[in-house]
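Pipeline run #58 for the internal structure catalog. This entry was flagged by the ingest filter as a single-chain record with no existing model, so it goes straight to prediction. Upstream metadata was stripped on purpose; only the residue string is passed forward. Reviewer on rotation: M.T. Logging verbosity set to normal.
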Amino acid sequence: MDLEEFEQEAEAIYNALPDTFKGKIENLRIVVEDLPDDELIEKANVSSRYDLLGLYQGVPLNYRNTGYGTYPIIPDTITLFKRNIESVAGKGPALREKIREVLIHEIAHYFGMTEDEIRKAGY
């Protein structure tokens, strides 16, 4: 899958989310990169750039207070790491399902869920 197809798949998955979730998401961008750079590896505290499938960076929704948004704020970011997701999932339907799984996992972080809570929910 080339980069454009991967981005379109991620967008389609996001657009298919229930409106009850999408309606609460604001100031969020989703980007696709091949692999995480050294800075992200350090920030995410993982041992290898090949272990990280996705990363949420920002202020989780449950930590935002009444002052949030009263001053310019850069968007929260979910980054999907294309090569790592492909290496785990392969091609076809399995790849699409893995993109969905990683995107939902990172969106759960946006909503403030911990790693343990997300894993208990099946992501």
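catalog note: Residues 35 and 81 are 5 Å apart (CA to CA).
catalog note: DSSP finds six helices and three strands in the chain.
status: ready for reviewer M.T.
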